[in-house]
Design goal:
There is one protein chain. By secondary structure, this protein is an alpha/beta fold. It contains 14 helices and 15 strands. The protein folds into two domains: about 140 residues, Alpha-Beta Complex (Aspartate Aminotransferase, domain 1), CATH 3.90.1150.10; about 280 residues, 3-Layer(aba) Sandwich (Aspartate Aminotransferase, domain 2). It has a seven-stranded mixed beta sheet with strand order 4-10-9-8-7-5-6, sandwiched between helices. About 45% of the residues are buried. It binds pyridoxal-5'-phosphate. The site of pyridoxal-5'-phosphate has 15 residues, from helix 6.
């Protein structure tokens, strides 16, 4: 084993690394990164790594943005913290900006992370139904979510997460959650067209609402396209149909845009690929391109209004995070959104995404590439052992492709530790600012890795 540098050894001795087996960390700790610029990370030995996942799907504007550092510095000097009980200028302005971008008529509630944004959404939904005026609204407690999706790691958010491997060892999950299938066109019943498949999985939502008792269902939460669970893109008829079903049964619709927000998929928000409005949007990650921890729960006015009452009647939302709407985070987010708009990163995501998709499509000739899918700069490459049967590939071979890219110092990921048997998708979501040469290097690294598993 190579001798570790001081900081690497300190990390092995002191740091609890997420998602990794301790033994693997001891054998080969991840590189110590000292700098980020554009899509490039530099490690302590001066090696440069091309980050094709943008951190964890979040560094949308790329690393090393001086403007963001400057705005954080200025805000820290001026007002480095404020209790959310008061109003900080950037926080109010960011709320207004989010309403403008989402075209939501409503209000915005800030939290520090995507998990907490979803947790806040669930509590809002529960309290909303109790106070909505619906005679038995208090019965509406159940949240329907989908297998394959990740919604965070807090109690209700991990409950809503449809990834069994993420839950092993954590005991009982909240009783109010029900899971249904997401659209998965690649593995649909082959007698069905993609649209018929979209209709079929939407019908599962309706059936579940009916079986559970429509007056007991509070909300349906979904990512417009499942990201960490394997990049699953729905047929075009699915999301509009989901909206109709939710409306029919008085079920609130929550879009988790934690990954798909802020230009990631070629529109400012993922759901804007379809002409559909949710009741709640949760977002995080790209909101500040990962430079600050920040998330938002954006609700429509109908929900907000149900919390208007009289002093003492407990109708207000009794929920707060010390760091919710942190002024440094919101100032950075405002500047980050200004960069996204000024540099036309929505269009860039769509155009560079289309270019990369075209390149990735050529990998379909490889015997183990079952499907290449994506929207904007969000990609999934599903690897199979057999294209006819679609039997999944040996996980060791996926690791081999990722390891090969790592040898070329290109960072790509997979939908690891999600659902049993289907952790077979390479996932990529580079910063939206990458150059064509960087895009080609990423595609080349995947291609070279694939050559090694034939
Ligand atoms: C779709 C989605 N929702 C929620 C979360 C949770 O966000 P956070 O890690 O900021 O708590 C994530 C994190 O990856 C996510 O991908």
């Amino acid at each position: 084993m190579a001798t570790l540098t001081n900081i690497s050894q300190t990390s092995v001795d002191s740091l609890w690394h997420p998602l990794k087996q301790h033994k693997n960390i001891q054998k080969a700790p991840p590189p110590v990164i000292v700098k980020g610029e554009g899509a490039t990370l530099t490690d302590e030995h001066g090696n440069e790594w091309l980050d094709a996942i943008a951190g964890i799907w979040c560094v949308n504007v790329g690393y090393g943005r001086e403007e963001l550092a400057k705005v954080a510095y200025d805000q820290m000097l001026n007002l480095g913290y404020l209790s959310p009980s008061f109003i900080a200028e950037p926080t109010a302005k960011l709320a207004a900006k989010l309403l403008e971008l989402t075209k939501m008529n409503g209000h915005v509630y800030f939290t520090p992370s995507g998990s907490e944004a979803n947790e806040a959404a669930f509590k809002m939904v529960w309290q909303y139904h109790q106070q909505s005026g619906e005679p038995r609204g208090y019965l509406r407690r159940k949240i329907i979510s989908r297998y394959r999706a990740y919604h965070g790691n807090t109690y209700a958010a991990i409950g809503a997460t449809g990834q069994a491997e993420r839950k092993i060892g954590f005991g009982n999950q909240p009783a109010e959650i029900r899971h249904i299938n997401p659209p998965y066109p690649y593995r649909r019943h082959m007698n069905l067209t993609p649209e018929e498949h979209g209709e079929q999985v939407a019908a599962e939502l309706e059936q579940t609402i009916i079986y559970e008792g429509q007056e007991t269902v509070a909300a349906f939460i979904m990512e417009p396209m499942i990201s960490g669970g394997g990049v699953l893109i729905p047929p075009d008829n699915y999301i509009p149909r989901v909206r109709e079903i939710c409306d029919k049964y008085g079920v609130l619709l929550i879009f988790d845009e934690v990954v798909s927000g802020f230009a990631r998929t070629g529109t400012m928000f993922g759901h804007q690929h379809w002409d559909v409005k949710p009741d709640i949007i949760t977002c995080a990650k790209g909101i500040a391109s990962g430079y600050q921890p920040l998330a938002a729960t954006i609700v429509n006015q109908k929900i907000y209004d149900a919390f208007i009452g009289n002093p003492g009647d407990m109708s207000h939302y009794r929920h707060i995070n010390t760091y919710g709407g942190h002024p440094v985070a919101t100032a950075v987010a405002l500047k980050n959104i200004e960069i996204i708009e000024r540099e036309g990163l929505v269009t860039r995501s769509a155009e560079m995404g289309a270019y990369m998709q075209e390149q990735f499509d050529q990998l379909l000739e490889h015997p183990n590439v079952g499907e290449v899918r994506g929207k904007g700069m969000l990609f999934g490459i599903e690897l199979v052992a057999n294209k006819e049967t679609r039997e999944t590939i040996d996980p060791a071979l996926i690791d081999k492709v990722i390891g090969s890219a790592k040898e070329e110092r290109v960072i790509i990921g997979k939908n690891g530790n999600t659902v049993p048997g289907l952790c077979n998708v390479l996932v990529l979501s580079p910063p939206l600012t990458i150059t064509k040469a960087e895009a080609d290097r990423i595609v080349g690294a995947v291609e070279n890795g694939l050559k090694k598993i034939i």
